[in-house]
Amino acid sequence: MIRVQLPTPLRLLASASAEIELDVAPPVTQRRVLDALEARFPTLRGTIRDQVTGRRRAFVRFFACETDLSLKSPDDLLPERVISGAEPFVIIGALAGG
After folding, report:
1. Sheet containing 67-68: order of strands
2. CATH number for position 22
3. What is the residue range of 22's domain?
């Protein structure tokens, strides 16, 4: 089981809890986790990544094991602690402005 933590706006949109458990077939990558998340919660399609290009939205960040994975390839394997369920894959809405 992969644990995914969602920010409040996405949690409300999906009518989900703060942390979700997903079954993701190996290899466990960002792309596969997001595919599983969108399959389970179709209302999230297009909110985390662009539906046409599949690219991460500008103000969305991905973290795992206290590391920003946002600029990593979506096909890179996630850390073993995330794959084992010991640590969550965290989706955060970034803030901008001054």
Report:
1. 19-22, 2-5, 89-93, 60-64, 67-68
2. 3.10.20.30
3. 2-93
The count of domains in the chain is: 1
pLDDT by residue (tens digit) across 8-45? 999 999 999 999 999 999 999 999 999 999 999 999 99
- On whether residue 39 sits in a domain, the answer given is yes
Backbone angles phi, psi at 21, to 5 degrees: -105, 130
Q: Which amino acid is at 47?
A: T
Residue 42 DSSP one-character state: G
- What does each C-alpha distance from 95 to 2, 9, 12, 44, 79 come to in angstroms? 26, 13, 18, 19, 25
Does the predicted model carry a pTM greater than 0.90? yes
Q: Note whether residue 32 is domain-resident.
A: yes
> What own/partner pairs with CB < 8 Å and gap ≥ 24 does 82-88 have?
82/2, 82/3, 82/28, 83/2, 83/26, 83/28, 85/1, 85/2, 85/3, 85/21, 87/3, 88/3, 88/4, 88/5, 88/19, 88/64
